Amino acid sequence: MAAASSATAIPSLDKVDFLKLQNGSDIRGVAVSGVEGEPVSLTEPVTEAIAAGFAAWLLDKKKVDASRKLRVSIGHDSRISAQKLQDAVSRGIASAGLDVVQYGLASTPAMFNSTLTEDEAILCPADGAIMITASHLPYNRNGFKFFTSDGGLGKNDIKDILERAASIYSNFLAKGYSVKASESVKKVDYMAVYTSDLVKAVRKAAGNIEKPLEGFHIVVDAGNGAGGFFAAKVLEPLGAITSGSQFLEPDGMFPNHIPNPEDKAAMKAITQAVLDNKANLGIIFDTDVDRSAAVDSTGRELNRNRLIALMSAIVLEEHPGTTIVTDSVTSDGLTSFIEKKLGGKHHRFKRGYKNVIDEAIRLNSIGEESHLAIETSGHGALKENHWLDDGAYLMVKLLNKLASARASGKGVGSKVLTDLVEGLEEPAIAVELRLKINQNHPDLKGRSFREYGEAVLQHLGNSIASNPKLQKATVNYEGVRVSGFGGWFLLRLSLHDPVLPLNIEAPSHEDAVKLGLKVAAAVKEFQALDTSALDKFAQP
Start and end of every Alpha-D-phosphohexomutase alpha/beta/alpha domain (predicted)? Predict the structure, then answer.
């Protein structure tokens, strides 16, 4: 074999089902071996084929003449497989004749931003951008998010890219695969540009004061992801004290806690840091900084419904009466807060950050003004920021509020923020139970898990209709949402998995159990549905 003399070992190629790597509007897979039952699916050849597939898709979309070479920016989070995948992505892009610009450690929002920045000195704008990340998933996973100046790619685009990748990969199988060095790779410190823009935004909101956060003590928890820049590159130039910030160093093994603002251990860690350091505010990011949450000086968490309420209050001050688009699992108390206290309109849509953002864009296109699209997970996007779900920008909006309140003599500290969510009704009990569908059970009768799940929802909806104590939501875009016993439940089908998540919120455990039992009674005839989590919750 002539190729054997090459200095680079040639990986053996297995057949791959590329479409299985799709995760909604992202691509996800296993990039590191060592976890039992999880074979590596994002090999270097697979990654190279995906990048070449994106390059081919981009060339078709941009339709540029031969005189201009397209360029693609590439960034990654702190995962241990990042460097290997960045090299493979670079080869895939370069093999299609496009220029490659590597940013190294970066955030997902910064990658989108690179398609908007106009500065030839830093090779911007990029025609396309790729972020190598798997958000808060375990260390052995990785994946890709893709952007153009129109925003993040949608599900259909991802399917198209994977189909192109499969064709390119079959070419590798037929003709052999060898690792060729990329010649057209340049490196740029784009994060310096991105963070500088965030700093300017806060200064501007405070009336062009150089250090509008002087004296504020703000601690950051980056969970060893890519968000450690926020302390030294954003907060400190604005005058804030950041001592007590933790887990700022990138470490793809995530040794301290999962970088996830929805994770209880993560929120406990940032809360403890705020209290231990007597800080004014705590800020926490997920791995790739497209999600965030905060903690006030008393240790009160500002995430999930509270973060949505806080952002709604800020946005509705700027845009009275606007529509706030959220995902489906937001509380009834939030609707009441947005509509009755703030005078806005709450449009509760589906799960999935891309669904929520796309719905806000759609509403604007038909004449219904919307300035905020936000999910309980901490994905939040603003119209003023190109509908980009940017965790750092969300926190900048909170910092703007702190800075402008102090500049106008309205007080110091996070009480300004806490006061904005005054009056938000919160349930005593809020749980999410996952009812799994056994895909091998004979009760599926040849149906897909999605068809089976839809049948469960249809039956539940019909059975609720005849119960006078329960009221089905009249406007609902996902699953079956029902109010009763002072609370509500939502049973829906997971976006990607054979699971029916059940959310219940109620004023007491007893009322939550009553709601749970209504669901249990309605779905008991579906034998392929594992209701053990619900049964355990409903036990006296």
Answer: 24-166, 197-299, 304-405
Residue 4 pLDDT > 50: no
Q: 18-188 and 429-538 share one CATH topology?
A: no
pLDDT tens across 430-445, in order? 999 999 999 999 999 9
Whole-number pLDDT of residue 243: 98
pLDDT digits (tens, 9 = 90+) for 6-20: 334 455 678 899 999
- Structural domain 193-420, CATH architecture: 3-Layer(aba) Sandwich (3.40)
Query: Could you read off the pLDDT of 314-349 as tens digits, one per residue?
Result: 999 999 999 999 999 999 999 999 999 999 999 999
The yes-or-no verdict on residue 229 having pLDDT over 50 is yes
pLDDT band at 2 (very low <50, low <70, confident <90, very high): very low
Q: Of 275, 273, 294, whose CA–CA distance to 283 is shortest?
A: 294
- DSSP run (H or E) holding 452: helix 449-465
Is the Cβ–Cβ distance between 249 and 270 less than 8 Å? no
Q: How many residues does the chain have?
A: 540
Domain 429-538 has CATH 1.10.10.60: no
Give the CA distances from residue 485 to residues 155, 285, 512, 517, in Å, rounded to whole numbers and listed in that order: 38, 36, 8, 12
DSSP assignment string, 419-441: HHTTT----SEEEEEEEEE-TT-
- Does the pLDDT value for residue 529 go beyond 70? yes
Confidence bin at 450 (pLDDT 50/70/90): very high
Q: Give helix 304-318 / helix 391-407 axis angle, nearest 10°.
A: 60
Distance CA(216)–CA(203), nearest Å, equals 14
pLDDT band at 174 (very low <50, low <70, confident <90, very high): confident
Q: To which residue do tokens 């829906």 refer?
A: 492
Sheet containing strand 218-221, strands side by side: 218-221, 281-285, 292-296, 301-302
Sketch the domain layout of the chain as residue ranges. Answer: 18-188, 193-420, 429-538
Count of C-beta atoms within a 10 Å radius of residue 344: 23
- pLDDT digit string, tens, across residues 254-263: 999 999 999 9
For 18-188, give the CATH class: alpha beta
Contact status, residue 300 vs residue 268, Cβ threshold 8 Å: no
Q: Is 193 helix (H, G, I), strand (E, B) or coil?
A: helix
What is the end-to-end Cα distance of the chain in Å, rounded? 70
Decide: 125 and 116 in contact? Cβ < 8 Å.
yes
Contact 293, 284 (CB under 8 A): yes
d(CA 161, CA 89): 13
CB 464 within 8 A of CB 523: no
Residue predicted with more confidence, 73 or 15: 73
Q: Bridge-partner residues for 131, per DSSP?
A: 75, 145
Helices (H), ranges, 35-154: 44-62, 82-95, 108-113
The three-state (H, E, C) secondary structure of 293-328, written as one string: EEEECCCCEECHHHHHHHHHHHHHHHCCCCEEEECC
- Helices and strands, counts by H and E, the chain: 15, 23
pTM (2 decimals)?
0.92
